[in-house]
């Protein structure tokens, strides 16, 4: 399973590099991506609920990257997510395997940048894109939990259910809250100011 996940990880990294090469970011987008990643990292340090074994629900740390992706497109959003993932290593990473590192720290935050995949011209697209991004974020963490942290599951609960409950109640809940905020934001006004 680890080898399969490693191959999938390599494919994701290669496709990101190709996308970045085909859709070059300008200086403003690079600076904004760095700023957004820093804001997301700071928000991730503010835990509303903290679980005993680590993790929890942060103060809308997913929101800046998803909003940035909706405003500037998925390539810029995924790049901001990558930087956010790298910054999150400053908070004391727990790494037991290279694939687990990618599944827990890099791919989930990069997935948030996919919020702008479907565009942002309608409210449905502004909800469906972030919903897909949150599902991919939680799925990446879920896979890591099943493969690498299944031993932490309680005796009467399998690794799959444990990982689903744990990651759904942390990243899943935070993601849904962020989607609700995205749905009520005055997006047209934000887009107008972001292009100024």
Please characterize this protein's 3D structure.
With 196 residues, the protein is mainly α. 71% of the residues lie in helices and 4% in strands. It is built from 8 helices and 2 strands. It has helices spanning 2-22, 27-45, 63-72, 74-87, 98-112, 123-148, 159-184, 187-194, and strands spanning 47-50, 56-58. A two-stranded antiparallel ribbon has the order 1-2. β1 (47-50) and β2 form a beta hairpin. α1 crosses α5 and α3 (63-72) packs antiparallel against α4 (74-87).
List keywords for this structure.
two-stranded antiparallel ribbon, mainly alpha, 196 residues
The biggest sheet, with number of strands, parallel, antiparallel or mixed sense and barrel status, is: 2 strands, antiparallel
What is the CA-CA span between the terminal residues?
Answer: 48 Å
Radius of gyration: 16 Å
Helix content: over 70%
Helix and strand element order = HHEEHHHHHH
Average the pLDDT over all residues and give the rounded result: 91
Could you list the spans in which at least 5 consecutive residues all have pLDDT below 50?
A: none
Number of strands: 2
How is the largest sheet built, in terms of strand order?
1-2
Structural class computed from helices and strand pairing: mainly alpha
**Coarse shape:** globular
Count of helical stretches: 8
Strand content bin: under 5%
